[in-house]
Amino acid sequence: MIVQRRAVSAVLAAAALLLTAGCSSDGGEPSGADGGTSASRTAAQSSPPGSATEETPPAKGSVEVVRTVATGLRSPWGLAPLPGGGLLVSSRDEATITRVDEETGEKTELGEVPGVSPSGEGGLLGIALSPDYASDRMVYAYFTSASDNRIVRMRYDEKEPPGEQLGEPDTVLRGIPKGEIHNGGRIAFGPDRMLYAGTGESGDTGLSQDEESLGGKVLRMTPDGEPAPGNPFPDSVVYSYGHRNVQGLAWDDEQRLFASEFGQQTWDELNAIKPGDNYGWPEAEGKGGGSGFHDPLAQWSTDEASPSGAAFAEGSVWMAGLRGERLWRIPLKGTEAAADPQAFLQGEYGRLRTVVPADGDRLWLVTSNTDGRGDAKEDDDRILELRVT
């Protein structure tokens, strides 16, 4: 694992320390906030001036909740649909992976991932299936250890008894900075069969511009954790930089990558990712960052979004909001927004963590109300099946 050698300047590092104060967590709350929900499930919120919802009339779309697939999940974070049926779900705080039967809702625990150190926003986060899952049965996981964030892979053997179905973890990538906040955590295999990871700057804002650090980046690597062919920096897994906390990755029908990103106090972002580009943090947040920085294609106030998961379906990126407690639709035209974003399910299911494509016009949506920041109801957390247009 080698990244391009260009250290952040002392001036930038000093600015980073100043910006750390008052930054928001993955729920959109100030750092150190624990337990409180930021918005009622039924309270409507107006869009502030300059938000993404006031520029042009929105394109028409709709979301229908087809059914509740499963309930009673504890601190769910990542979701990976299995070929042939079944959904794997990670628990951030319990460090377990559970298989959910999408027809009956029955839950079977595969096992606990060893080495996970849950604390703050860290723990067992994103999961993904190997592109060769049919033959190797490998499940990849991103998690916070005692010393760093890392990516491992484990063989899933459903012939073993429940609770003992995960093999020993093989470390794919280590050394991603960890913190009480901003651990990133989303992983996904792209159309190119390479493994992508969204990371955070762990509260140390200078890391985002430091290309020697894996923090505050979108990473791209082979399934074995080596720098992927064609990466913008020689011998480096860094694909883009200048990010604050990336927790959503999605590809459109043309194999273009989009990433959702938590802002600090002003703007959350959806970015079109281009290899080697600088997305501005901590010197820029939202649009208009200036020369040398890649502007987001859409932005939101942090109380409207605090975005985690992202998925592409029916011509749009769909983005799950934590503090915003809503599902955003961003219709696309190339790498630009075709119209203003639309919000759905506002306040109906609480905090929304993960959204994953299903078949056709369907999405899987995971709530996040039992992680210490939400207003948990009796059946939380849950997986929903949605139909979208």
TrEMBL record:
<dbReference type="Pfam" id="PF07995">
    <property type="entry name" value="GSDH"/>
</dbReference>
<dbReference type="InterPro" id="IPR012938">
    <property type="entry name" value="Glc/Sorbosone_DH"/>
</dbReference>
<feature type="signal peptide">
    <location>
        <begin position="1"/>
        <end position="21"/>
    </location>
</feature>
<feature type="domain" description="Glucose/Sorbosone dehydrogenase">
    <location>
        <begin position="73"/>
        <end position="373"/>
    </location>
</feature>
<keyword id="KW-0732">Signal</keyword>
<dbReference type="InterPro" id="IPR011042">
    <property type="entry name" value="6-blade_b-propeller_TolB-like"/>
</dbReference>
<dbReference type="InterPro" id="IPR011041">
    <property type="entry name" value="Quinoprot_gluc/sorb_DH_b-prop"/>
</dbReference>
<protein>
    <submittedName>
        <fullName>Glucose sorbosone dehydrogenase</fullName>
    </submittedName>
</protein>
<feature type="compositionally biased region" description="Polar residues">
    <location>
        <begin position="37"/>
        <end position="54"/>
    </location>
</feature>
<feature type="region of interest" description="Disordered">
    <location>
        <begin position="22"/>
        <end position="62"/>
    </location>
</feature>
